[in-house]
C-alpha cells in the first residue's frame, strides 16, 4: 500500500468517526494531521463571546446569509475538519454533509481564543483557512497582551493571508469584501476603540 492510499484510508476512517461521534454538549472534535482531537467545553466567557460575535454579525450580513455556531468546516484539498466558533455561509451554498461545509464555500470564519491554549487560533488555523480559500478569518483574542483584540485576516492567496488588521475591543471593525460592512465590537465588552496595527 502506498502512502497516498494509506492516507486516504486513514482520512476515510477519521471522517466517518468524526461524523458519527456523539459528544456531550459543548465538547468539540477536530480532525488534524491524521488524528482526531477532542476538546472539553471552553467555559462561560467563551460562550458569551460566541453569542456576542453572532449578534454583531446578524445585523451586518447581507440578507439570506446564514450564521452557524460550531458547524464543521472541511478544509478544501486537505484531510482536516475544524469546528470554528462561527461560520458564515451565503445563500445557495451546497452543504457537503449535515455536519460540515467545505471551506471554500464559507465567507467568514470566526475563532475565539481560549485562555489556556490560544496557539492554534493564532498560528495553525489562519494558515489552514487561507489554504482552504476562506476569504475572511476573524480572530477574537480576549487573552492577548496588552489587551483584548480582534484581528481580521483577508486576501488569501498561495496558502497565506496577505492582509491583517487588528483593533482593540470596542472598535468599529471594517470587514472587507465579500462582506464589506462594519462590525460593532462594542458588543464584546470593549473599552478601547483604537486601531492597534495594520
UniProtKB/TrEMBL annotation:
InterPro entries (UniProt xref): Nuclease_put_TT1808, Restrct_endonuc-II-like, Uma2
Annotated keywords: Endonuclease, Hydrolase, Nuclease
MF annotations from Gene Ontology: endonuclease activity
Domain of life where this protein originates: Bacteria
Every Putative restriction endonuclease domain range: 21-180
CDD domains, alphabetized: DUF820-like (cd06260)
Pfam families, sorted: Uma2
Cited SUPFAM superfamilies: Restriction endonuclease-like
Protein name as it appears in the record: Uma2 family endonuclease
Lineage of producing organism: Bacteria, Bacillati, Actinomycetota, Actinomycetes, Pseudonocardiales
Amino acid at each position: 500500500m502506498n502512502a497516498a492510499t494509506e492516507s486516504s484510508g486513514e482520512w476515510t476512517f477519521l471522517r466517518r468517526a468524526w461524523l458519527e461521534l456523539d459528544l456531550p454538549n459543548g465538547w468539540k472534535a477536530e480532525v488534524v494531521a491524521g488524528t482526531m482531537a477532542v476538546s472539553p467545553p471552553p467555559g462561560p466567557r467563551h460562550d458569551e463571546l460566541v453569542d456576542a460575535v453572532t449578534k454583531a454579525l446578524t445585523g451586518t450580513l447581507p440578507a439570506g446569509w446564514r450564521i452557524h455556531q460550531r458547524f464543521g468546516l472541511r478544509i478544501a484539498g486537505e484531510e482536516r475538519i475544524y469546528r470554528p466558533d462561527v461560520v458564515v455561509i451565503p445563500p445557495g451554498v451546497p452543504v457537503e454533509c449535515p455536519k460540515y461545509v467545505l471551506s471554500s464555500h464559507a465567507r467568514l470564519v470566526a475563532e475565539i481564543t481560549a485562555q489556556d491554549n490560544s496557539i492554534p487560533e493564532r498560528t495553525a488555523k489562519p494558515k489552514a483557512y487561507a489554504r482552504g480559500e476562506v476569504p475572511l478569518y476573524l480572530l477574537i483574542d480576549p487573552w492577548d497582551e496588552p489587551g483584548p483584540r480582534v484581528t481580521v485576516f483577508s486576501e488569501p492567496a498561495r496558502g497565506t493571508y496577505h492582509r491583517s488588521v487588528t483593533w482593540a475591543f470596542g472598535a468599529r471593525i471594517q470587514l472587507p469584501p465579500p462582506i464589506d460592512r462594519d462590525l460593532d465590537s462594542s458588543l464584546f465588552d470593549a473599552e478601547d476603540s483604537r486601531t492597534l496595527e495594520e
